[in-house]
Amino acid sequence: MGRKKAVEISSEEHLMLLHEKIINKDSLDHLTEWVKDLGYDMGRSSIGRYAQEFNKKIEAEKEYKALSEEEKRLVWLYRNMNKQKRELLLHELFFEPPIGRYVFCGRYAK
User: Fold this and answer.
1) Tens digit of pLDDT for each residue in 54-89?
2) Prediction pTM value
3) Own/partner pairs for 12-21, CB < 8 Å, 24+ apart?
4) Is residue 6 part of a domain?
5) Is residue 2 assigned to a domain?
6) Are residues 35 and 50 in the same domain?
7) How many domains does the chain have?
C-alpha cells in the first residue's frame, strides 16, 4: 500500500495558515489537530513529512538569499545545464586534466 499525497488542502488560505504555523514551529500534534478541525483527513505522519519538506525549502531559500550575485549566477547556470554538461563540469572540477592542457566544457586546449 503506497503513501497518500502528503497534504491535500484545497483552500489557499488554509495552506498559507499551515505554512505560517510550520514556520512558527507549532508542534506536530497541534498541526494535526488543527488540520483535522478544518475538516481535512490527514495523518500525523503525512503532516510531519510535509512540514519537513517545507522547512527544507525555507532553509534552501534562506541560503540562496545569502549568496552573492556571482554565486547566484553560478547556481542559475548549474541548474540550467543539462545532466551531461553538469557531469562534465563536476568531473573537470574534481579531476585534474592532463598536464599542460586546459579543460573547458569537456574539450582540451593547449
Assistant:
1) 999 999 999 989 999 988 888 888 888 888 887 887
2) 0.61
3) 14/38, 14/40, 19/54
4) no
5) no
6) yes
7) 2
Residue with cell string 551531461: 84
In a domain, 19, yes or no: yes
Domain boundaries, position 97: 69-109
pLDDT at 97: 58
Q: Which of the 8 DSSP states describes residue 82?
A: -
Model confidence over 27-53: pLDDT tens digits? 999 999 999 999 988 889 999 999 999
What is the end-to-end Cα distance of the chain in Å, rounded?
Answer: 58
Helices marked H in the chain — which ranges?
Answer: 12-23, 28-37, 44-65, 69-80, 83-94
φ and ψ at residue 102, rounded to 5 degrees: -110, 145
Same domain, 45 and 59: yes
Question: Cα(76)–Cα(69) distance, rounded to whole angstroms?
Answer: 10
One domain, residues 23 and 58? yes
